Amino acid sequence: MTRLRLTEMFFSLQGEARTVGWPTVFIRLTGCPLRCGYCDSEYAFYGGEYHELEAILAKVAEWSPRYVCVTGGEPLAQKGCIDLLKALCDAGYGVSLETSGALDISEVDTRVSRVVDIKTPGSGEVDKNRWANLPLLTANDQIKFVLCDRKDYDWARMKLDEHRLTQTCDVLFSPVFGRLSYRDLAEWILADRLPVRMQVQLHKHIWGDVPGH
C-alpha cells in the first residue's frame, strides 16, 4: 500500500505555469535533495506526516478541483509519487508536477504536465541538472528557469539555443521574488525577442510569502 509523507495540502489559485489563476489543489510532499539559495519552501525539507494514498485522494475529492499540482520539496524523491500522479490522472484531474529537474522523470505518467525547473548558476545547484530529462519532454510539459540576475538570464538564453527548448514545450522565465526586477526581465525578453513566457508568481502578489497559499 502506497504511503507518502506530506507537508501540507491546500486549495488555492495556481500562481505559476500554464494554469496560472485556476483554482487548484496543491499536494506538497516532504523532502528535497537540493538546497537552492532562493528556495521559498524550506519548511518542506523536514517533518511532514505520512498519509495513505487513498486518504490523499479522498481529501482532494472534497475540494472538487479541476486541477491538482504535486509539488515539494522535490516530489520525485519519494517513490510513491509515481503512484500518486497516476491515481490523480485516473481520477480525471488535470495534473501537474513541479520538479527540480535533478531526478529522473521517465516514469511519470505521460498525462501529467511535468514542470521541470532547470537550475541556473544563481541557484547554487546548477551541477544537479539532469540533462537526460530533456529528450523525454513533450508538448504537454513545461520548462522553468528561475532567474536571479542578468548572468542567469544570459545562461538560460544560451541553454534555449543549445537544446532548442522552445521547439519542445512551453518555456517559463521567472524572476526570483524580490531580487530581480520584473521590468528588467520583461525588457530583456522583448529586446531579444525570446519565445518564452514570463511569470511573476501570482500567489505571492495576493497573499505574500506565506506557506499554504
Question: What distance lies between the first and last C-alpha atoms, to the nearest angstrom?
Answer: 30 Å
Uncertain spans: none
CATH architecture: Alpha-Beta Barrel
Please name the CATH topology. TIM Barrel
Kindly give the count of domains.
1
What is the ordering of alpha helices and beta strands?
EEEHEHEEEHEHEH
Assign the CATH class. Alpha Beta
Relative strand content: 15-25%
The helical percent reads: 10-25%
What structural class do the secondary elements suggest? alpha/beta
The radius of gyration is 16 Å
How is the largest sheet built, in terms of strand order? Answer: 3-1-2-4-5-6-7-8-9
Number of helices: 5
Q: What composes the largest sheet?
A: 9 strands, mixed
Shape: globular
Find the count of extended strands (DSSP E, 2+ residues).
Answer: 9
Short structural summary:
The protein is built from five helices and nine strands; from the N terminus they run βββαβαβββαβαβα. It is of the alpha/beta class and 213 residues long. It has a single domain, classed as Aldolase class I (TIM Barrel, Alpha-Beta Barrel), CATH 3.20.20.70.
